[in-house]
Amino acid sequence: MSLERSATQRAGHLTVSMQVLLASALLLLVGGGRAVLAAGPACMSDAMIVFDASGSMAALDFPDGGPSRFDRAKASLGTFLPTVSPQRRLGLVTYGPGASRNACANASLRVRPQPNFAEPILSEVEALRPAGRTPLTLGVRMALDALPETAATVVLLTDGQETCHGDPCALARQLRSVRPSVTVHVIGYKLQMRDGRAESGAECLASETGGLNVTADTVDELNRAFEQTLGCTNVAQLTRRQEPATLP
């Protein structure tokens, strides 16, 4: 997969990014009070979600049994995406299920970054049935190819290690060298403990690109993980801080 983008595409996305940057920096003075942006990162970059739909996501390894890992992750995404998609261009890559006889080729670009696109993304996830292996490095590469050369974000959700001979750490080093404006966040979901630590083997994607490594075992923890990695400041939702009233 190529990490190249044309100058025309870069210029177009740069214009959009600058518009969002200016909007995110806005500070309004309202009737003696101050309206300030809510806490959280501004949505200055397109973002791609790389969603694990491999066979292990069908597991029911929770104290209360079902729903499965996949269904719980899907529910969390369904709660979060409608709140962020009006503010940030989002896209989707999935891996695991697919038509190829080579299970390690089953990663798919489902949605390129689009504004206000929660419903189509969730529809793509809803149609999936967990199956196959974990070509997470291929999935991240596909996400990168769908993003502009300007600042961009990838959020990888995985419940395990690469199983298709991909090298996420080599990809991370390549990104650091040739696309330093890309940030990759890694959400490790229901990870197995290895040497006393919960690891996916993809943590280097985050550490090499300045991203976050977050682990989650419950829906609530997944909700927080998505908020940490994809959450936005919404200029339209300003909090007004009233100045103390002046007594006559």
Automatic annotation (TrEMBL):
Alphabetized InterPro entries for the sequence: VWF_A (IPR002035), vWFA_dom_sf (IPR036465)
Domain VWFA span(s) in chain numbering: 46-230
SUPFAM superfamilies assigned to the protein according to its UniProt record, in alphabetical order: vWA-like
Name of this chain's protein: VWFA domain-containing protein
Natural source organism: Hyphomicrobium nitrativorans NL23
Taxonomic placement: Bacteria, Pseudomonadati, Pseudomonadota, Alphaproteobacteria, Hyphomicrobiales
